[in-house]
Specification:
It is a single chain. The chain is of the alpha+beta class. The chain is about 70% helix and about 10% strand. It contains seven helices and four strands. It has a four-stranded mixed beta sheet with strand order 1-2-3-4. Strand 3 and strand 4 form a beta hairpin. Helix 1 packs across helix 2 and helix 3 packs antiparallel against helix 4. The chain is globular, with a radius of gyration of 19 Å.
Length: about 240
C-alpha cells in the first residue's frame, strides 16, 4: 500500500511515477524560475514573448530531466537491480530503490545511466547549436536545449550525496577497497573540493564583475553544503 502522501501519476517505461503533495508548489517554483531566466536571457523582449520563452525553458528542462531519469531506469534494469518508482517531490525527480542489498557494481550501474544519457544529449546538442546559431528562433531553441542538458549533466556530476557522481565514486571506491566507509570518505573529500571550487569561482566572477554568475555559484555552493553536511543525500521534508 502506498503511503498516504504519495499519489500515482503515470508509468515511465514501466516504472510507476509517484508524487507527493509538495510537487505542485515545487513545479510552480520551477515555472517561476523559468520566467526569471527568460527575462534575464532576453530582457528587451515583450512580456508575452518572455512568457512563451519561459514555457520553452520549463518544457526543455523537464524533458531533459525525464530523459535523464529514463537512463537510470534502463541502466538499473540492465544491471539486475531495477528501480521501484520515481518520486516527484518539490519539483525534483528522485529514484526510489527499496532493495539496497545489492552489489557495489549494481549501485554504480544504477547511478551511471542518467549521466550517460545526458552526456549523449549534450554531445548531440552541441553540433545542432553550432549549425543553427545564426538562424532566428532555431538558435534560441537549440541553445536552450543545449543549456538544459549541460546544466543537468553538471548537477549530476557534482560529487555530493544526492547526485549521481557521488554514488559512482562511493561504490567504485568501496568495490576496489572492500570498505564502504572509504567510499563515504571519498565523497566527503570530493564534495568538499567541489564546494571550495564553487566559492573560488564565485570570487573570480565577482572580481570580473559578473555578479549574476557569482550568485549562481554561491547558490550552488550553499546547496552542496546542505546536501553534504546536513541532508547527507536525504530529501528535505
Amino acid at each position: 500500500m502506498l503511503p498516504p502522501t504519495d499519489f500515482f501519476v503515470t508509468n515511465l517505461d514501466g516504472t510507476p511515477v509517484l508524487a507527493q503533495e509538495n510537487t505542485l508548489p515545487g513545479l510552480l517554483g520551477t515555472i517561476g524560475l523559468s520566467y526569471v531566466v527568460a527575462r534575464l536571457y532576453r530582457p528587451h523582449w515583450s512580456r508575452l514573448a518572455q512568457l512563451v520563452l519561459a514555457a520553452i525553458w520549463f518544457g526543455a528542462f523537464e524533458l531533459s530531466y525525464v530523459l535523464h531519469t529514463l537512463g537510470h531506469i534502463q541502466s538499473a534494469r540492465q544491471i539486475g537491480a531495477p528501480m521501484d518508482s520515481v518520486l516527484l517531490t518539490w519539483g525534483l525527480q528522485s529514484n526510489v530503490y527499496h532493495n539496497e542489498d545489492v552489489t557495489a557494481r549494481q549501485h554504480v550501474g544504477r547511478a551511471a545511466g542518467g549521466p550517460i544519457v545526458t552526456s549523449l544529449l549534450v554531445a548531440t546538442a552541441m553540433p545542432f547549436y553550432a549549425l543553427l546559431r545564426r538562424v532566428p528562433l532555431l538558435k534560441e531553441l537549440s541553445e536552450i536545449w543545449l543549456f538544459c542538458n549541460a546544466f543537468n549533466l553538471g548537477v549530476a556530476l557534482m560529487p555530493i550525496p544526492h547526485f549521481d557522481a557521488a554514488s559512482i565514486l562511493k561504490w567504485t571506491t568501496a568495490q576496489r577497497s572492500g570498505e564502504v566507509a572509504l567510499g563515504d570518505e571519498a565523497v566527503q573529500k570530493a564534495g568538499s573540493l567541489a564546494i571550495a571550487g564553487l566559492f573560488g569561482a564565485a570570487s573570480l566572477l565577482v572580481l570580473r564583475g559578473q555578479w549574476r554568475a557569482a550568485i549562481g555559484s554561491l547558490i550552488g555552493a550553499s546547496i552542496a553544503i546542505a546536501d553534504l553536511f546536513a541532508l547527507k543525500g536525504r530529501l528535505p521534508g
